[in-house]
Amino acid sequence: MRVTVVTPCLNPGERLERCLDSVAAQTYPDVEHLVVDGGSTDGTVELLERRGVPFVSEPDEGQTDAIAKGFARAQGDMLAWLNADDELEPSAAELVVSSGADWVYGDCVVVEGDRRTIWRPPPRYGPREVEAGEMIPQPGSFFTQDALERAGGLDTTFDLAMDIDLWVRLVDAGIEARYVPVELAVFEIHAASKTGYIGRKDFMLEHARALEKSGRRRAAAAAIGRAAAFGEVPEVPAWADAQLVRTARSAELGIERLRRRDPRGIPALLNPQVWLQREVRGRVVAAVRRGLSRA
Q1: Are residues 112 and 163 in the same domain?
Q2: What's the start-to-end Cα distance of the chain, in Å?
Q3: Contacts of 218 (CB under 8 A, 6+ apart)
Q4: pTM for the complete prediction?
Q5: Rounded CA gap, 108 and 179, in Å?
Q6: What confidence tens digit (pLDDT) does each residue in 237-292 have?
Q7: Full domain range(s) for residue 133
């Protein structure tokens, strides 16, 4: 079985070389690495030519479009995307293939400055976890070509939560997710990364849109409510109707009550490393549910 890793990028700088090294160091012998570049001017093309990594460099419609283009060119049976500032652990592809599953995810090392945190996702990811707003790491998640096709491919209208939208549709397509309790990837948060410079609120709102799109309106309302922990929520998101937003306001009430009881705790959630701790997410989800129960 061949594994294809797609890396989208645009002026990624020196971090790209670490990404390339991590894919080249895979212990599994049949790994294809494709880089889809949006027209970099920082020496990326020259680096890829020097390294002999297959690539395409041309204008695109953004990160999700670039990933989709890479998947369309992929020769592998098992797929993943790895952003230019992330890395795979050396045994990642080997462990994924040996699992025999159509969709595999594992633990993820999160690096922010000199801090390293292990993101340990839920050991099961299915309809219940989707409804609860649980997340699994995108770096180190692999799925087969067949699974991707059954889910309908990537939705290029998503700019931030394209992974969550795909996970939801994989679940709804009946693809079983297999958890490997091993660190499969390294995810770096820095000032130039999307996670570093875009507010968590914006990710939450796209998460909510993915849930609403799948028909999970109450879960979508809860996600909007959770976004309240990260700042002011727009009056009515463009994709939401008034009823959904009214329900979301009830979810916000739960957040506000938690904020009053623990005034230092909610601001701490602005730190992505804190948010990755399941017990912290659990407090926020419980507060949202209390608000929804009064809706």
Answers
A1: yes
A2: 50
A3: 247, 292
A4: 0.85
A5: 12
A6: 777 777 777 666 666 666 666 666 665 555 455 455 555 566 666 666 666 666 55
A7: 3-190
